[in-house]
Amino acid sequence: MNYQGILNEIEKEIDLKNFDGKVASYIPELAKVNGEKFGMHLYTLKNGHYSFGDSNEKFSIQSISKVLSLALAFDLVGNELWDRIDVEPSGDPFNSLAQLEYENGIPRNPLINSGALVISDILVTHLKNPKKDFLAFVRQITNNPTINYDDAVAKSEKKWGFRNAALINLMKSFGNIENKTKKVLDFYFYQCSLSMTCKELAETFMIFANRGATLETGERIITPSRTKRINAIMQTCGFYDEAGEFTFRVGLPGKSGVGGGIVAIHPNEYSVAVWGPKLNPKGNSAIGMTALELLTTKTGYSIF
Amino acid sequence: MNYQGILNEIEKEIDLKNFDGKVASYIPELAKVNGEKFGMHLYTLKNGHYSFGDSNEKFSIQSISKVLSLALAFDLVGNELWDRIDVEPSGDPFNSLAQLEYENGIPRNPLINSGALVISDILVTHLKNPKKDFLAFVRQITNNPTINYDDAVAKSEKKWGFRNAALINLMKSFGNIENKTKKVLDFYFYQCSLSMTCKELAETFMIFANRGATLETGERIITPSRTKRINAIMQTCGFYDEAGEFTFRVGLPGKSGVGGGIVAIHPNEYSVAVWGPKLNPKGNSAIGMTALELLTTKTGYSIF
Amino acid sequence: MNYQGILNEIEKEIDLKNFDGKVASYIPELAKVNGEKFGMHLYTLKNGHYSFGDSNEKFSIQSISKVLSLALAFDLVGNELWDRIDVEPSGDPFNSLAQLEYENGIPRNPLINSGALVISDILVTHLKNPKKDFLAFVRQITNNPTINYDDAVAKSEKKWGFRNAALINLMKSFGNIENKTKKVLDFYFYQCSLSMTCKELAETFMIFANRGATLETGERIITPSRTKRINAIMQTCGFYDEAGEFTFRVGLPGKSGVGGGIVAIHPNEYSVAVWGPKLNPKGNSAIGMTALELLTTKTGYSIF
Amino acid sequence: MNYQGILNEIEKEIDLKNFDGKVASYIPELAKVNGEKFGMHLYTLKNGHYSFGDSNEKFSIQSISKVLSLALAFDLVGNELWDRIDVEPSGDPFNSLAQLEYENGIPRNPLINSGALVISDILVTHLKNPKKDFLAFVRQITNNPTINYDDAVAKSEKKWGFRNAALINLMKSFGNIENKTKKVLDFYFYQCSLSMTCKELAETFMIFANRGATLETGERIITPSRTKRINAIMQTCGFYDEAGEFTFRVGLPGKSGVGGGIVAIHPNEYSVAVWGPKLNPKGNSAIGMTALELLTTKTGYSIF
Asked: In this model, does residue C94 exceed pLDDT 80?
């Protein structure tokens, strides 16, 4: 397959002027990102790397990090995880307290904020130095020791994180948070502040396309069975209340972040990351969804 | 009207054994209250005081204090209040986040927790020494300088107040809280910890039966028009999602607290307080509701 | 009290141009009503009748009829009624299916559509000729044999009554409707089509101000205790999700209809009806609410 | 792959005694089905048929038929479909009116009852003889002229279909139903009454594994692109509020019915049907979900 040719077509066909979403503005650090950025990086199992545009520029991966913390927590505690978090799509915005209240503090899935906070709580319980150890895990699967948190983003999130404070206090009232809320929130905000380029993101997510092992070193990070289950969760829950739309249009498991990034994987074929900071009303990168839809349309293959 | 005779009948007719509710147990200080307590105090405009049982024993008035903080805030900022709080019955439990989320952080009314937290925020903004000044206000309308907070109760509430922390953080995320959440919560927990006997409670609420003026000193505390409006709010919102039931059975404006107290007023006739710590599933004193229903049935008069 | 003087002031002070609501338009028969109509009729226990404007013009009383069918059903089956309907304010629009579904087909109160449909079901079960017998009941309490249904309105309601069909089918699925849905709906639409003037409406509702007896003939229609309870329900549930607002502003039990009518009563003092077809966004007569607020402000008396 | 061996293992490992769900009982025709039935049929693209147990016994496919009517409607009106139905998981029970009301009569997806009723409405509009033409379509893709409706089931559904009547009336009130509700419901109940064996069901769904073409005749029924999209919808919406669980455990697109059937497909590999009438609390065949989980575990392949 002529992957570079397909990527070039995607870049050409997409006219930024047709995408009028808004850059995330709830914290100043995200608000000042240039909305015209657009890059894509495809990393295939058999044929290496393809890319275009701003694919080597760092951005805040935000909620995409939830898949990584899920992977680590799943590895640490196994199926006990599912006593505290469900695996159902939320059908509601990513920060809905209503649903969490109706369901007695059990988050719908690990990829919405409430679920990711429970995952953070688990990591805070099981890791000696949560922030340091989690970063080490990410660097290991990425095979890249330069990956880092963005301190300014983390601090700004903390300053404006009233809704996450509401979520975690509600869960604490239901007994579903073990540690001090302040400590868990601190870890959570750092986790979300991870900064990566499209290339780094695609490299990081290669383990989910490669049955749980890194491609470079062949090291198994998670079991194939757990990899399959994490992919399944990305498929049904990776895009808040637009998970169905993404599955319908793109047909791959993936995860988005309010920094404008989307990562997706085709098991045994490739991982792919795209970045375009303007978000649609559901909080997902408008241009990113279209780019990935073009990818599966032009290659003729999705998982369906 | 032979009020004492009627009170005696009520005391006789009510058999504690028929009431199997539960004493509030979410903090240890309330859990250790004796569930068998039962007292009632009626304070009439024209004929003074009537009572029975444990009417001179102190208990935690809890949410009943919300009417007092509402009165003070209404006096301080007038109708601006209603830009930040509605006056509709909630139809939902007193601490529902779901409703608050759907309604963008605007509480349904000032007598549910979220609404009382906004009132607390207003008092924190407008009072020099919120805790001290609010206590002075209560002592003034009660004409009783011994009324005080219960420090142990306030501290325990603070320790277990995760749900209130969730509520206030959610409202802060919507911009409906001006001050630091910690400061507002601290004031709120102290306000709720006020300790009174049935007699003191009836005396305190006499201003709402007496068109806004104290009976002892004749001092006007709130205008008749605002008194009427506060009474209206008590009628439709004073009993969480049992406001309709209380209105249906008793037919008077009133307010309950999880300490087992209920206060009600008959405008131009009397104020009445009853205490029985066992709560029904909706969080209201089971015996208190029955005692007040008997009162309006036996006197033959409610406001309807 | 100079009631006629007060009414004249109300008429003068209210400027129709300031009220920009919309005439109900979901059926053609209501849509063609002149939005500029405005009339008021006050009927006092001790001093007879006062009025102004279009107070002698017939209009469709619509949901106001729900109080009358409630009164008849309460008389027929007594407290059994409350096994099938609650007495809590809905906090939701008058035709909410969501709430009804969460609460397993038990309507929140008898004055929202679902509750009134259960009342209709009860009347269909217990009356030999439901439409005829109910009309006879209304004529009896009004002491006016000319009161009648509006056939065109009833037929139009039936033609467009999909939402009521949804409500009744949902309740039927929960086992809370005994008769055929078609038969109950037919009765319901006729009941709502009753046509009255402000004067007739005030006369009809006099029984609720007069402890259950007609004023003209002294005949007792409902017991004082049940009258008190119906008034309580009007207070907390008479204005859909604006019940708190009406209680707050006006301070009297009352009921509105989408035909633009509002009736209210001051127990032992008066009944009052006002008509202004333009509805506010909550479905209540905007001008009617203001006229009644002026009435209790100018007389200086509400029930609070 | 030794498919028959794997099926034999599944049959052996599953102990019916461990599955205590309940046979659907809302209509007598389903209630009398023997809960001990258990059969499975696997139909591979390259190696034909494998099966065990009661795989040749007819049962009511119920909601599984919704995928077939969706396929036909998608073919008839194309993407216009998505103006009237969304493609998001519901996160709520299959017959939720609450969600439908909040979302103004637009069903979450075509595989819940409300969505399937809109599909029925579309078919009633576009087919000359809806029941006959739809049956012909099913027979065509199955290459089996004996497939038929179960008249007794359809009539029973109609008799007890109050909740579906509620759904369709609610959508009609929002303008999302074009035809008479009675006519649409009649078609819908017949569609759901289709009777098939596991073998027939697997044969019918082969088109979704085979990029839209029948395997026997090679005839293209739907385009590959639309096939992919229907599969995506099955993945996120095929199991009501257990879609995430099925995706997590099984990892294949599929659809369940209250008759106890489940069908799933592995694109380009196989279609598979399993039947076990006892339902778990979410309304899906408990034994069927486990059998399919074993299938993807033992073969080592799902789409993830």
From this structure: no
The pLDDT confidence band at residue D178, using thresholds 50, 70 and 90, is very high
pLDDT band at residue B97 using 50, 70 and 90 as cut-offs: confident
Nearest Cα to A230, choosing from A63, A87, A124? A87
Whole-number pLDDT of residue B49? 98
Of the partner residues C99, C101, C162, the one whose CB lies closest to the CB of residue D96: C101
Chain C residues whose beta carbon lies within 8 Å of the beta carbon of residue D165? 165-166, 169, 181
Q: Which chains touch A (3 or more CB pairs under 8 A)?
A: B, D
pLDDT in tens, A167-206: 999 999 999 999 999 999 999 999 999 999 999 999 999 9
Residues of C in contact with B222 (CB under 8 A): none
* D102 in reach of chain C (CB within 8 A): yes
> Can you tell me which residue has the tokens 């009025």?
C51
Class of domain A65-192: alpha beta
* Model confidence at A123: pLDDT above 80: yes
* Residue D210 neighbours by CB distance under 10 Å: 22
* Predicted confidence band of residue D93 (pLDDT cuts 50, 70, 90): low
List CB contacts (< 8 A) between B245 and chain C.
87-88
For C3-62+194-299, CATH gives: 3.40.710.10
Q: Does A96 touch chain B (CB under 8 A)?
A: yes
Cβ contacts (< 8 Å) between C244 and chain B: which residues? 86-89, 109, 232-233, 236-237
Say yes or no: B162 contacts chain A, CB-CB below 8 A.
Answer: yes
- At residue D36, φ and ψ (nearest 5 deg) are -85, -5
Q: Where in chain B is the domain with CATH 3.40.710.10?
A: 3-62+196-299, 63-192
Which chains does chain C touch, 3 or more C-beta pairs < 8 A? B, D
Give which of C95, C97, C121 to mutate to test D binding, by max D Cβ within 10 Å: C97
- Global pTM reads 0.93
Helix (H) or strand (E) holding B48: strand B48-53
For range C54-60, the mean pLDDT: 98
Q: If you average pLDDT over residues A291-296, what whole number do you get? A: 97
Backbone dihedral region for residue B141 (phi beyond 0: left; psi -120 to 50: alpha; all else: beta): alpha
Q: Which CATH number fits domain D63-192: 3.90.70.10, 3.40.710.10, 1.10.260.40, 3.90.79.10?
A: 3.40.710.10
Q: Which amino acid is at A62?
A: Q
Please give the residue of chain D at the shortest CA–CA distance from C173. D162
- Measure CB to CB from residue C241 to each of B88, B241, B244 and give the nearest one: B88
Q: SS3 sequence, chain D?
A: CCHHHHHHHHHHHCCHHHCCCEECCCCHHHHCCCCCCCEEEEEECCCEEEEEECCCCCEECHHHHHHHHHHHHHHHHHHHHHHCCCCCCCCCCCCCHHHHHHCCCCCCCCCCHHHHHHHHHHHHHHCCCHHHHHHHHHHHHHCCCCCECCHHHHHHHHHHCHHHHHHHHHHHHCCCCCCCHHHHHHHHHHHHCCEECHHHHHHHHHHHHCCCECCCCCCECCCHHHHHHHHHHHHHHCCHHHHHHHHHHCCCCEEECCCCEEEEEECCCEEEEEECCEECCCCCEHHHHHHHHHHHHHHCCCCC
Does A236 contact D253 at a Cβ distance shorter than 8 Å?
no
B246 CB burial (10 A radius; 0-12, 13-18, 19+): buried
D7 Cα to chain C: minimum distance (Å)? 41
- The verdict on domain D3-62+195-299 having CATH code 3.40.50.720 is no
Distance from CA of B209 to the nearest CA of C (A): 8
Q: How high is the ipTM of this complex?
A: 0.94
Give the domain B3-62+196-299 fold.
Beta-lactamase (3.40.710)
The residue type of D295 is L
